[in-house]
Amino acid sequence: IGVCSRLASALRGPRAQPPAVAHRCVHASVSRPSSDQSERTREPPRAFDPALLLFLVCPFSKKPLRYEASPNELINEELEIAYPIIDGIPNIIPQAARMTHQNKKQEEMEQH
């Protein structure tokens, strides 16, 4: 069974996991010796792969996103919101979005 079909079946309902999947899950949750953890902390943070921009869109507008390296975010210029990238993984759930500075400045001007 492929990874996608296993994921789909896991999302459909609480069935017993195949032994290989269960073994990997248990193995991943077991605490590791401190030497492994120290090696893990020495790894540089993963970089965002710009090739993902071909597939990622804003969940609100369904429009393409722009990668901004300095704050390490994906930007929706139309809605002026930004999504964080953590360890090379874009967090594009709506709750993770923040307003960009331009939008905040406009709101402040409207309030005064």
How far the N terminus sits from the C terminus, by CA atoms, comes to: 60 Å
* β-strand amount: 15-25%
User: SS-based structural class?
Assistant: alpha+beta
Characterize the largest beta sheet: strand count, sense, and whether it forms a barrel. 5 strands, antiparallel
Low-confidence stretches: 15-19, 21-32
| Helicity level | 25-40%
The value of Rg in angstroms is 20 Å
Apparent shape: globular
Our count of helices gives 4
Average pLDDT confidence is 73
User: Could you state the order of secondary-structure elements as H and E?
Assistant: HHHEEEEEH
Q: What is the tally of beta strands? A: 5
Protein model, in words:
The protein has 112 residues and is an alpha+beta fold. The chain contains 4 helices and 5 strands. Strands 1, 2, 3, 4 and 5 form a 5-stranded antiparallel sheet that branches. A hairpin with a 4-residue loop joins strand 1 (66-68) and strand 2 (73-76). The longest helix is centred in the N-terminal third of the chain and has 11 residues, at 19-29.
